[in-house]
């Protein structure tokens, strides 16, 4: 009897082990140690289009590294193809509060870079403080001396309406009134309401003389030509006016602050 008590538990254990042997719980998976099987189970899967032999596909050649370029030499940075604006220009031509008016910002990215205000080398026999207008290049120079000048882009008069010669800026005015000449009224009757008999046009953002006007005299007589600002920034670099020298409003304010009393002006 005691013998059976000792034998039955052992027999039950043997039967349980035999029934679980199919689950491989006690049998190690020696195939997992096979390098071939490891590679097969862990290798990445690549997309291979039908009919394409990956051994015959040529690799893409290395692309050249973009070289450093002068950032503001052109309007666009050619490396990335995006418009780039000089932050200095943004400061010079941004929104400006002046007297009782607020001048809007100039969209400098739409103005040709050579017509934006900049100090340049300029050799001339004219003495410092002289204003020189180059009508062919549409530039106005304020002579600083030592071979330097401040250069501005300008709009000029159409053929037949331009003036040239040497004169004196005898009078300067902030936010001037605009009074068209008798000749202009005869050519353009629509400006008659602003004629001298009606007191001219009040100062303002749409006044044709802009934020400043400098009146050119010759031999003590008013030539009726002015250096003045304009709200029409698109006219800079073009011949569209009735003879006067137009400047961006932010530029004409800068020039107004630079020129001395009775400054000489040469228009050539």
TrEMBL record:
GO biological process: cell wall organization; peptidoglycan-protein cross-linking; regulation of cell shape
L,D-TPase catalytic domain sequence ranges: 129-268
A Pfam family of this chain: YkuD
Annotated pathway: Cell wall biogenesis; peptidoglycan biosynthesis
Keyword Ligase applies: no
InterPro entries, A to Z: LD-transpeptidase (IPR050979), LD_TPept_cat_dom (IPR005490), Transpep_catalytic_dom (IPR038063)
GO MF entry, a single one: glycosyltransferase activity
Family as reported in the entry's similarity comment: Belongs to the YkuD family.
Active site: 228 (proton donor/acceptor), 244 (nucleophile)
GO cellular component: extracellular region
Protein name: L,D-transpeptidase
Native source species: Rhizobium ruizarguesonis
Keyword Transferase on entry: yes
């Amino acid at each position: 009897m005691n013998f059976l008590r000792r034998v039955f538990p052992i027999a039950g254990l043997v039967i349980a082990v035999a029934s679980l042997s199919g689950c491989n719980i006690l049998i190690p998976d020696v195939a997992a140690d096979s390098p071939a099987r490891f590679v097969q189970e862990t290798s990445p899967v690549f997309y291979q289009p039908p009919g394409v032999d990956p051994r015959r596909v040529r690799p893409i050649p290395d692309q050249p590294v973009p070289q450093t370029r002068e950032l503001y030499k052109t309007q666009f940075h050619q490396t990335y193809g995006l418009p780039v604006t000089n932050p200095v220009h943004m400061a010079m031509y941004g929104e400006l509060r002046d007297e009782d008016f607020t001048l809007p910002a100039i969209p400098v990215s739409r103005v040709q870079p050579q017509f934006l205000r900049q100090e340049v080398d300029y050799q001339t026999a004219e003495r410092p403080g002289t204003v020189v207008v180059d009508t062919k290049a549409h530039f106005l120079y304020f002579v600083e001396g030592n071979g330097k000048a401040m250069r501005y882009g300008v709009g000029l008069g159409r053929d037949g309406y331009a003036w040239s010669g040497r004169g004196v800026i005898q009078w300067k005015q902030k936010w001037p009134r605009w009074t068209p000449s008798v000749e202009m009224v005869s050519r353009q009757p629509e400006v008659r309401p602003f004629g001298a008999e009606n007191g001219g046009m009040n100062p303002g953002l749409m006044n044709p003389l802009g934020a400043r006007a400098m009146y050119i005299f010759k031999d003590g007589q008013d030539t009726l030509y002015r250096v003045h600002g304009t709200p029409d920034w698109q006219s800079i670099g073009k011949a569209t006016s009735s003879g006067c020298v137009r400047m961006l409003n932010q530029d004409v304010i800068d020039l107004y602050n630079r020129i001395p009393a009775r400054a000489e002006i040469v228009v050539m």
